[in-house]
Amino acid sequence: MLSREDNELLCKVGPGTPTGALMRQYWIPALMSSELPEKDGAPVRVRLLGENLVAFRATSGKIGLIQNHCPHRGASLFFGRNEEEGIRCVYHGWKFDCEGACVDMPSEPAESNFKSKVRATAYPCVERNDIIWTYMGPRRPPPPLPDIEPNMLPHGEYQVQKVLRECNWFQGLEGDIDTSHLGFLHLGAVKPEQTRPGTFDYYNVSDRAPKYEVVDTEFGTSYGAYRPAEADTYYWRIAHFLFPCFTMIPTGLLGMQVLVRAWVPIDDHHVMFWSIAAPRSRVGTGAAGGASGLSASGRPVAAAGSRAGGFEFLPDTSDWTGKFRLTQNKDNDYLIDRESQRAESYTGIAGIHQQDQAVTESMGPIYDRSQEHLGTSDAMVIRTRRRVINAARALRDAGAIPPGVDDPAVYRYRSGGVILPRDADWREATKGLRRAFVEAPPEQIAR
After folding, report:
1. What is the per-residue pLDDT across 370-385, written as a single tens digit (0 to 9) for each?
2. Rounded Cα–Cα distance for residues 287 and 386 (Å)
3. Is the pTM of this model over 0.85?
4. Which alpha helices (H) appear in 363-431, and where do they start and end?
5. Domains of the chain
6. Nearest-5° angle of CA 110, CA 112, CA 117?
7. Beta-sheet strands, E only, within 269-415
8. Which residue, 229, 292, 284, 288, is CA-closest to 257?
9. How far apart are CA 347 and CA 310, in angstroms?
10. Cβ(151)–Cβ(131) under 8 Å?
């Protein structure tokens, strides 16, 4: 368990907090490109790391991400006119460019140089493969973007999804690095005889208590969770946490799966889940546990309001948390079907992602981790919490640059499942399979 002091340090991400400062050392996903479809189009509200911001696509196509309140008298720039490479406040006509410089003050005398003395807070943005990344930290120039493999593939080979979750960012992230819940929350109603022998799902439900090896890495933390496969082998699920808020889950074949997820804090009580994946890589011998948008019957959810990937969404609103909200949510108990829960479904909640959302949101906006009772299956959660807390403190107390900030190549990894001899060293045996931007070996493709 964590002390209440450490719990607060881990969870709070607003300006002036240690973990907020840690987050601001990195580029983070801010918007999909599709959220700003037009040059000189309508601005949109964006909340990130507890800050209210306004985003716009300028005449040149460049992205602006600027403070919500006009530096003049505080009117919201959401209502501004996006025109001629800047956003103009409709209150008095002050205009700001994408860098936050005031470029026009029509309400001031023509001879005044006052505009050269006023700036709005603005954050640099880079658009890469349908994701708008932003850097909210102090360094100029900013560090390089991370080498996130699925975000660097050719167009048409990747898919991007977003889903809002109403809880603290680390509650959501912890679900991704907790492999033991797979055999209960998602596969609890599945019996071994209902699966095909020799598949990952078969091994998962035949032994729901894997053993763990957890290590610190140059990018964050990794785990190898293993359980018996055949007489002389183990089935390993190998996955990662990567600073500051990325995860790689082990649902596909190690060496083939190209998938990165991000848990981007909106504020202390809301997180935006991102999935960036190469759909062609999601093959293997049982891929349970992915946020695939499947119904309880295994069929993709498809309904009015759905976005790519099968999630069903409520209509968008223009407020700070008004997008990417699932129709299954806490206000309707995630449409739980108690009859289905008794007869065929462990949870009665359709959809793997929705099951995860239900349990992490049910903990409350920020769970008091001083009340926990952790076991051996929580080894990765414990290690990752401590890694983040230590990095945040080292930055605060000694100015130590956290892992991965200046080395984008440390993100060149993959996760997934693999069968290994029981006497194998999992880290050494999977060194090549965990490497990104390489072709999968023939023996993996054949599985």
Report:
1. 999 999 999 999 999 9
2. 29
3. yes
4. 379-398, 426-429
5. 27-142 (2.102.10.10), 151-445 (no CATH)
6. 135
7. 270-277
8. 284
9. 20
10. yes
